[in-house]
């Protein structure tokens, strides 16, 4: 009968719902009248069912509906919820407290940040001691694991049940699997926008209770009013939400007003990042939001209101609020107001905010028509800006002196972007002179792309750039420089700080005969000894065959690590030149090369070159070229692309994983060879022990005891190599690695000393661990000292290795080298101890066999005939067994580790390939671009010569000998020049300062 009642309740509730408590109760209806019912509790809902069979659900409510719980009489329980109340009578006080305890645990699982008493809103128990006892139960349950991502899936299920929405298992799987494995604290609505809006409502609603997620983001998706309302509800109630990113979400001014109201309702808000870019908030919405931003207790770190249709009025409201909040001055580091119309002079509150002490690092006023007048520039100089973006008009009559003052006095500027600006030449001059005389700055990134500089801008750059010591990245692409690049590159080569240079889209109007001269100067720049240049972009320059001049110089280049040659239409011949350069270049790490009209054969050439290159890490698939090549020859194209991906993946795989592979190989060999021999020997010894188990001679008993102990060591030896290799010295593996990484900034000798100390400690710990696993064999005299002495000789790391590694990939290489030595030590110790066990077992088996012979007993052979013969041979020839063991372990080490070492040696060997340098030509003869490749390709046969001295060779990359052309009339007197030179010679930077300060350069 009881079984039928339980099954009836399950059928009524649903078998997918797990019930945690069932109790028979009496429901008070009118007056003292009561009716029998069944109370069933699930983790998300309470059910009241009829007591008859089959049971039916009369009422139910979600745990989130609870308004209060009271028990003023010993057996009475009153549950209040949003739609009414249940007045129940149970069998005893203990049953009442049990029901209340289960409800509290359910609420605590849904809202782990709040006490169940607080979530219940009202808890009235008599006597009060009952509350204390229940609180103790809830405190014990508070430390229980909530599940993945703070129990989000359970909270999402409860919310779906509460709102009457369907539960999507896809959401649960994504959060419990993807978000958990990525350790992501950001709930990105982009992952779920394929669902209905009501599903998004349930997902967002769960964040009201969740303590895992701290960020909500949505981009380029128009949010419905229901979703927006739920986001506002989370903002008003969550104490964990720190970042809110709603980019281009179709928000209006009313949302900003409601957001201000939500923030005002949450005194425990931890929101510090607010990004509402690309939403039409207008001045009305910004003003309402600003009023609440002034009251945020934690201040703001990041505020982005770019492209929100603000005017100076809205900016003034915002900045007034920022000034009113004293916390903002010490927290706000990023302020983006770009893309708003800020014309006019009425920005007093912006000036006031910037003039007060603050910690701004990034200020973006680009595309805002904000005039950089004297007051604004003056206040910008007093704080630590690291990023500055603005927009200037070429048609402005004059550039204020404060513009130069800003760049000469900035304290922490690291990025200046004026891209897309029709930059006045006077402004360019003021900018460069300001940066050049600022001693506070270093590593400044200067973006002057698409500024229409042309010849006038080139002249200014030529006069300044060589002496500016703090520009590390310069982008002057798409400025119509053309032939002016010839001289400009000479001055750029004199700069010792520029590491990243972009000069693409500057060859559109240059004559073909002059391209080679420009590229020659570029080659001289990148091949110059101790050149600081590490990144070069020639993107979208349409150089075609002329690009081979630069590609030919890559073979011997020792500075460039990144090259962008996309959009140059170099064709298959250019691909051939690139392939040859990649085969010998060991410095490049990144090559971008799409949009070059490369056929399947060109892709095959580059793929074949990558097979021999172990240093390229990033080489994006040339999508545009591949799309065209697939139409011509899909099989050949797919094969080339697949090979390129495989070789890049090979180059990316760090040697740390190879060490794990070597360990698994070593472990597998030991398991299938030595351990099998050990097991067979143990079976033989056990047979002897069984035959001697009734002996009473003390000498025989002692030998039997020794044999039993050796068998224990043999069994433990199976765990010897794994335990030694995975030994955690001094606690966690991270602590050991940290001891090395903390010393990498010091001298190489110091790092080597730390490594030696760590390896010595590791060796001692390994020996100690081995002694704990195999104590009996380790008791042999001097074995411990022998192991320590022999291990010490195997753990040395050359100082030269440390010095080389510190220059590049220091942390990874050092730790990998330690892993290599660690595997070597673990293998050596394991092999030596296993050999010792096998030798001892062999002697013990020999001794036991002698005892059996003396007693006249025959050995019991339970093994197959072949195995017995092998064992007898081993017993009779222990010396041969030891020799075989040594040979076997030698083969293991060669097979398991030398392949790994070959990878190391190959990589280092490729980096140390000597470059053969030909004798330089006589001084009067200029160096032809093709001659540079003689330094890389030795004595290869020269290509066919061309009568055109300005043509570019597109064949192989050999040295080419040129005949010196002599003019037969060079001794004739030259006529006097009748025209003045069009350009004055440019002097040194410091001589030109007065010139730039007193003259106005006009655009041509």
From TrEMBL:
Please tell me where this protein is predominantly located.
Answer: membrane
Keywords on record: Cell membrane, Cytoplasm, Leucine-rich repeat, Membrane, Repeat
Name assigned to this protein: CARMIL C-terminal domain-containing protein
Q: Where is the composition biased (Basic residues)?
A: 971-981
Q: Which GO terms describe its biological process?
A: cell migration; regulation of Arp2/3 complex-mediated actin nucleation
The answer to whether keyword Cytoplasm applies is: yes
Show where the CARMIL C-terminal domain sits: 770-988
Where is this protein localized, as stated in its record? Cell membrane; Cytoplasm
Species, as recorded: Anabas testudineus (Climbing perch)
Sequence ranges of Polar residues compositional bias: 995-1004
Q: Which GO terms describe its cellular component?
A: cytoplasm; lamellipodium; plasma membrane
| Gene3D superfamilies per UniProt | 6.10.140.1850, Pleckstrin-homology domain (PH domain)/Phosphotyrosine-binding domain (PTB), Ribonuclease Inhibitor
SMART domains annotated for this entry?
LRR_RI
Q: SUPFAM superfamilies of this UniProt entry? A: RNI-like
Every copy of the CARMIL pleckstrin homology domain together lies at: 21-110
Q: InterPro entries in the record, alphabetically?
A: CARMIL_C, CARMIL_PH, Leu-rich_rpt, LRR_dom_sf, PH-like_dom_sf, PP1-Reg/Actin-Interact_Protein
User: Positions of the region Disordered?
Assistant: 914-1004
Q: Give the UniProt family note.
A: Belongs to the CARMIL family.
């Amino acid at each position: 009968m009881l079984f039928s009642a339980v099954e009836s309740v399950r059928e009524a509730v649903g078998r997918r719902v797990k019930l945690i408590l069932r109790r028979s109760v009496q429901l008070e209806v009118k007056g003292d009248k009561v009716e029998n019912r069944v109370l069933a509790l699930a983790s998300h809902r309470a059910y009241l069912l009829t007591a008859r069979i089959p049971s039916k659900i009369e009422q139910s409510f979600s745990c989130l509906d609870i308004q209060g719980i009271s028990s003023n009489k010993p057996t009475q329980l009153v549950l209040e919820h949003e739609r009414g109340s249940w007045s129940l009578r149970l069998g005893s006080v203990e049953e009442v407290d049990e029901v209340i305890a289960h409800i509290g645990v359910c609420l605590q699982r849904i809202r782990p940040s709040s006490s169940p008493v607080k979530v219940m809103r009202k808890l009235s128990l008599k006597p009060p001691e009952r509350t204390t006892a229940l609180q103790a139960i809830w405190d014990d349950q508070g430390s229980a694991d909530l599940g993945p991502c703070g129990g989000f899936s359970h909270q999402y299920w409860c919310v779906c049940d509460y709102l009457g929405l369907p539960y999507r298992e896809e959401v649960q799987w994504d959060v419990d699997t993807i978000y958990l494995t990525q350790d992501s604290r950001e709930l990105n609505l982009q992952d779920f926008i394929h669902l209905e809006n009501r599903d998004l409502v349930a997902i967002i609603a769960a964040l009201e209770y969740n303590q895992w997620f701290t960020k909500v983001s949505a981009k380029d998706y128009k949010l419905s009013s229901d979703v927006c309302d739920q986001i506002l509800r989370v903002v008003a109630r969550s104490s964990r939400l720190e970042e809110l990113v709603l980019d281009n979400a179709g928000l209006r001014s009313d949302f900003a007003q409601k957001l201000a109201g939500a923030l005002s309702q949450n005194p425990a808000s931890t929101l510090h990042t607010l990004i509402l870019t690309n939403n039409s908030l207008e001045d009305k919405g910004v003003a309402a939001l600003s009023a609440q931003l002034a009251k945020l207790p934690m201040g703001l770190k990041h505020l982005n209101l770019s492209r929100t249709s603000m005017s100076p009025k809205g900016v003034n409201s915002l900045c007034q609020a920022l000034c009113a909040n004293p916390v903002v001055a010490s927290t706000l580091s990023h302020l983006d107001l770009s893309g708003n119309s800020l014309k006019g002079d009425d920005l007093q509150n912006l000036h006031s905010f910037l003039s007060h002490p603050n910690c701004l690092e990034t200020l973006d006023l680009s595309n805002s028509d904000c005039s950089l007048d004297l007051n604004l520039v003056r206040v910008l100089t007093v704080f630590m800006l690291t990023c500055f973006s603005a927009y200037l008009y070429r048609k402005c009559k004059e550039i204020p002196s404060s513009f130069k003052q800003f760049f000469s006095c900035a304290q922490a500027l690291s990025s200046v972007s004026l891209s897309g600006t029709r930059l006045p030449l006077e402004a360019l001059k003021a900018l460069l002179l300001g940066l050049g005389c600022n001693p506070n700055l270093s590593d400044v990134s200067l973006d002057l792309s698409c500024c229409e500089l042309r010849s006038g801008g080139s002249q200014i750059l030529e006069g300044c750039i060589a002496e500016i010591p703090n520009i590390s990245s310069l982008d002057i692409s798409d400025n119509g420089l053309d032939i002016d690049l010839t001289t400009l590159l000479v001055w750029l080569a004199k700069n010792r700080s520029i590491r990243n240079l972009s000069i693409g889209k500057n060859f559109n109007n240059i004559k073909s005969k002059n391209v080679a001269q420009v590229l020659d100067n570029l080659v001289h720049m990148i091949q110059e000894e101790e050149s600081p240049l590490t990144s070069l972009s020639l993107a979208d320059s349409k150089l075609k065959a002329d690009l081979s001049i630069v590609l030919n110089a890559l073979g011997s280049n020792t500075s460039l690590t990144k090259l962008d040659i996309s959009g140059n239409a170099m064709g298959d011949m250019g691909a051939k030149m690139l392939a040859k350069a990649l085969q010998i270049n060991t410095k490049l790490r990144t090559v971008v090369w799409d949009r070059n009209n490369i056929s399947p054969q060109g892709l095959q050439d580059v793929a074949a070159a990558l097979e021999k290159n172990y240093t390229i890490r990033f080489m994006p698939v040339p999508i545009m070229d591949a799309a065209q090549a697939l139409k011509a020859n899909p099989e050949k194209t797919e094969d080339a692309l697949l090979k390129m991906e495989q070789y890049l993946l090979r180059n990316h795989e760090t040697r740390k994983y190879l060490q794990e592979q070597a360990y698994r190989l070593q472990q597998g060999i030991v398991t299938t060879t030595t351990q099998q021999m050990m097991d067979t020997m143990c079976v033989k010894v056990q047979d002897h022990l069984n035959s001697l188990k009734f002996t009473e001679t003390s000498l025989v008993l002692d030998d039997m005891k020794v044999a039993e102990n050796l068998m224990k060591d043999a069994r433990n030896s199976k765990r010897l190599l794994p335990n030694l290799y995975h030994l955690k010295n001094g606690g966690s593996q991270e602590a050991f690695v940290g001891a090395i990484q903390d010393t990498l900034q010091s001298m190489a000798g110091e790092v080597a000393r730390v490594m030696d100390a760590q390896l010595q400690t590791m060796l001692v710990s390994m020996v100690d661990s081995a002694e704990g696993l195999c104590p009996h064999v380790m008791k042999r005299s001097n074995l411990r000292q022998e192991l320590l002495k022999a291990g010490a000789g195997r753990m040395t790391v050359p100082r030269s290795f440390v010095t080389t590694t510190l220059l590049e990939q220091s942390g990874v290489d050092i730790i990998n080298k330690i892993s290599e030595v660690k595997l070597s030590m673990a293998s050596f110790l394991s092999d030596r101890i296993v050999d010792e066990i096998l030798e001892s077992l062999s002697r013990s088996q020999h001794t036991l066999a002698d005892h059996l012979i003396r007693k006249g007993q025959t050995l019991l052979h339970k093994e197959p005939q072949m195995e017995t013969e092998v064992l007898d041979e081993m017993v009779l020839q222990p010396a041969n067994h030891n020799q075989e063991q040594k040979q076997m372990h030698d083969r293991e080490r060669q097979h398991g580790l030398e392949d790994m070492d070959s990878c190391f040696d190959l990589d280092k060997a490729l980096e140390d390939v000597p470059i053969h340098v030909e004798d330089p030509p006589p001084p009067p003869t200029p160096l032809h671009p093709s001659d540079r490749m003689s330094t890389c390709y030795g004595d290869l046969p020269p290509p066919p010569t061309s009568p055109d001295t300005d043509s570019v060779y597109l064949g192989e990359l050999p040295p080419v000998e040129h005949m010196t052309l002599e003019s037969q009339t060079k001794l004739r007197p030259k006529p006097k020049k009748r025209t003045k030179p069009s350009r004055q010679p440019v002097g040194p930077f410091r001589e030109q300062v007065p010139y730039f300060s007193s003259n106005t350069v006009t655009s041509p």
